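To illustrate the input format used throughout this study, we show a single complete record. The first block contains the structure-token representation of the backbone; no residue identities are included at this stage. The design step must infer an amino acid for every position from geometry alone.
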């Protein structure tokens, strides 16, 4: 029995629901990186990064290729960078709306 689309989407967003995973995707948007470069740019233990990369790899969000002793990760599709851009834009709009509400609340307090 096929999984309903809404359920597949929910699982996809759950996969993205970890700060280290989002940071990895942000770093990979500029191109493939070896694990050592990811480790240098993300403040986590190697075992934690490995675990998060495995989650992304199993979900098909990133690909891993071996170049000698080095494993290089890349986004599986350039559309992932578009998704990150969309998330940034939506978050900016949401926070802007909250900022406006905060300004109104502060203004009312001083009346």
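Output of the design step:
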């Amino acid at each position: 029995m096929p999984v309903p689309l809404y359920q597949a989407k929910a699982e996809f967003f759950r996969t993205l629901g970890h700060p280290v995973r989002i940071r990895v995707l942000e770093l990979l948007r500029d191109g493939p990186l070896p694990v050592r470069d990811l480790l240098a740019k993300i403040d986590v233990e190697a075992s934690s990064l490995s675990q998060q990369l495995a989650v992304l790899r199993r979900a098909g969000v990133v690909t891993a290729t071996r170049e000698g002793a080095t494993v290089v990760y890349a986004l599986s599709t350039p559309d992932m960078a578009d998704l990150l851009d969309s998330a940034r834009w939506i978050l900016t709009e949401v926070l802007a709306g909250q900022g406006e509400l905060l300004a109104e609340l502060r203004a009312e307090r001083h009346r």
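Structural context for interpreting the output: Residues 79-109 form the longest helix (31 residues). Helices lie at 5-16, 19-28, 35-41, 46-58, 79-109.
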